[in-house]
Design brief:
2 domains; eleven-stranded mixed beta sheet; two-stranded antiparallel sheet; 10 helices; PKS_Beta-ketoAc_synthase_dom; acyltransferase; Ketoacyl_synth_C
């Protein structure tokens, strides 16, 4: 069974809505810039993919993650034709890696004051939309697709409508951690390239409205199913076997074979281990069909938006299916050996009729999620 996506919303460094984001991605524009959110003199890495909505460079404010989340959810709800002043009774599921950790950092380092209740997304969702059934999931970088999996389960159990969202913003804690585990401070993200240096963080939020019966509303696309697992292979190092298992389960749940996939939206972090592990798993599953789907990695232009990345890629993938247009992977000049034979889109956007897509998201600790999407019938 498939579930209809009737509403979409997004905000990221490359755009304040789905249209602007998709247009800039297809144009091959990168959102990377010199770090603006905090003092970079204490860091060797100096770049990030931020949403430029702070008062001034180096001046940060609390509740930015909440603000991006409310923006994306509001867009999606209005796009679906729902009453954005009353989401009572509608489950709202939010995937995130760090929630409002940046607000806590500002409280600790600068004495920023705010009620403790504002650290919970549910408080703002209730005030903005009268949402009284909210749930926050923190499943690292696959949190958005884990929330999507829960949304699909709720629909299968009888819910009529579910809102699924993902959000994260830069925190100095995570920024410092990532730069210290990478040998060379990267200046941009280059997924699957032999000369990639590692990952840089990005910011953003995305949301979708899922329904059992669209009721005459336009449909952006369909979610056939989502598979999730946790292989617990290693705290940070990914396991190709665990990833391959999640992909095979997604194919089974979605009723597809590798040869049916027209588009692969890969996780593609640009880190040394992750790209090789993902490519190895994909080669194992797709085998002789690896040259059939088009492949792209949007983190080359958005950076790694953590809990938002899966849902940002979801809205982009649905737009790809609707328009038959696929953004390029920027900075991919010499693919790693493990990715040999895959049809990466590079240089400029590709144009081709598309029906079925696979969307990957993987997180620390082997938290794997894979979704199968279909163009609107």
């Amino acid at each position: 069974m498939s579930w209809a996506v009737t509403g979409m919303g997004a905000v990221a460094g490359l755009g304040g809505d789905v249209d602007e984001l998709f247009r800039n991605l297809c144009a091959g524009r990168s959102g990377v810039a010199e770090l603006r959110g905090f003092d970079h003199s204490r860091h060797t890495a100096r770049h990030a993919y931020e949403v430029d909505n702070r008062p001034a460079p180096g001046v940060d404010v609390t509740r930015r993650a909440t603000g991006l989340l409310l923006d994306a959810v509001g867009q999606a709800v209005r796009d679906a034709g729902l009453d954005d002043s009353d989401l009572s009774g509608v489950p709202v599921l939010v995937g995130t890696g760090l929630r409002e950790l940046r607000s806590v950092e500002l409280w600790r380092t600068q004495g920023a004051e705010f009620p403790a209740s504002e650290l919970h997304f549910g408080t703002a969702l209730r005030e903005a939309f009268r949402a009284d059934d909210t749930h926050t999931l923190s499943n690292a970088c696959s949190a958005g697709l884990y929330a999507l999996a829960l949304g699909v389960d709720l629909l299968a159990q009888g819910a009529d409508t579910v809102v699924v969202a993902g959000v994260d913003v830069l925190t100095e804690t995570m920024y410092g951690l990532l730069e210290r585990v990478q040998p060379v401070p990267p200046t941009r993200v280059r997924p699957f390239d032999r000369d990639r240096d590692g990952v840089l963080m990005g910011e953003g939020a995305a949301a979708v409205v899922l329904t059992r019966v669209p009721g005459g509303r336009p449909v952006h696309g369909l979610v056939r199913d989502v598979a999730v697992n946790c292989d617990a292979f290693h705290v940070t190092a990914p396991d190709p076997a665990g990833i391959a298992e999640a992909i095979r389960e997604a194919h089974t749940r979605g009723g597809v074979k590798p040869a049916d996939i027209d588009l692969l939206m890969v996780h593609g972090t640009g880190t040394l281990l992750n790209d090789e592990a993902e490519a190895t798993a994909l080669a194992d599953v797709f085998g002789p069909d690896r040259d059939k789907p088009l492949v792209t990695a949007t983190k080359s232009m958005t950076g790694h938006t953590s809990g938002a990345s899966g849902l940002l890629n979801l809205v982009v993938t649905l737009r790809c299916l609707a328009e038959g247009r696929v953004p390029p992977t920027v900075g991919l000049d010499d693919p790693v050996d493990e990715a040999a034979g895959f049809r990466f889109v590079t240089g400029e956007a590709a144009h081709r009729p598309l029906t079925v897509a696979q969307l990957n998201a993987f997180g620390f600790g082997g938290i794997n999620a894979v979704a199968i999407l279909e163009a609107a019938r």
